[in-house]
Backbone:
């Protein structure tokens, strides 16, 4: 059982993505507990203020330390659901700030997080976080890619999805995560399903041959070609490039 906390100003944004498919099943089967906390509930003034102008000037508002850190403290003190409380160990939570300034999220980090017991994701809105939030929380900064979104909610959902599907028992077929793109440093090979002929486009003969050795060879070759074409950066890093 892994517990994932999300600190956000928009808890409702998570309702639908967490209510379907693999994540829904993983929650029902007790593989993951996902807890949403609203940072605004921890604002102290009567306006429920959570952001303020940036020192030094510049456009945009910055998330203030106090509401975020109070929310984090509250969440860290709260424990697992009773049923799993006895299975806890003493590992500290991984605390992650979602920001475009972070290190890039990838399948390797997803695997690392899937082995944790507790992850706390902090999703900001506005122009970013007061730097002292990162320092005080001992948080790592993570970005899901080189583009700027209007908040950390979608990135938090991306991370939750990528992590939960890696939890043992989350996928129907244990093999399906092992063959995923990136799991061996390459993109996945192309796939085909019925019909054999779609508007004159035929399924490659080898896939119909029943020759598993040949199929495996073809898939490896296709994975290499696709990676070389679409992701030369990955191809050059892979051991297959030399
Ligand atoms: N917040 C805004 N853009 C982001 C990104 N690309 N990754 C993570 N958090 C973000």
Residues:
């Amino acid at each position: 059982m892994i517990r994932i906390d999300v600190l956000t100003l928009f808890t409702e944004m998570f309702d639908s993505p967490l209510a379907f498919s693999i994540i829904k099943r993983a929650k029902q089967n007790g593989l993951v507990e996902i807890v949403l906390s609203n940072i605004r509930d921890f604002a102290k003034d009567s306006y429920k203020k959570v952001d303020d102008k940036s020192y030094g000037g510049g456009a945009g508002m910055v998330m203030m330390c106090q509401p975020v850190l109070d929310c984090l403290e509250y969440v860290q003190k709260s424990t697992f659901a009773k049923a799993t409380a006895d299975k806890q160990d003493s590992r500290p939570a991984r605390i992650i700030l979602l920001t475009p300034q972070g290190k890039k999220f990838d399948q390797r980090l997803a695997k690392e997080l899937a082995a944790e017991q507790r992850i706390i994701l902090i999703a900001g809105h506005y122009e970013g976080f007061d730097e002292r939030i990162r320092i005080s929380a001992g948080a790592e900064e993570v970005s899901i890619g080189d583009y700027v979104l209007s908040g950390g909610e979608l990135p938090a959902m991306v991370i939750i999805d990528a992590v939960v599907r890696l939890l043992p028992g989350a996928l129907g077929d244990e093999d399906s995560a092992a063959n995923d793109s990136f799991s061996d440093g390459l993109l996945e090979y192309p796939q085909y399903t019925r019909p054999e002929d779609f508007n004159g486009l035929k399924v490659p003969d080898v896939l119909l041959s029943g020759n598993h050795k040949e199929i495996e060879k073809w898939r490896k070759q296709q994975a290499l070609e696709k990676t070389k074409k679409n992701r030369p950066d990955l191809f050059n890093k892979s051991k297959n490039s030399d």
Summary: The chain has two domains: 2-164, 179-241.
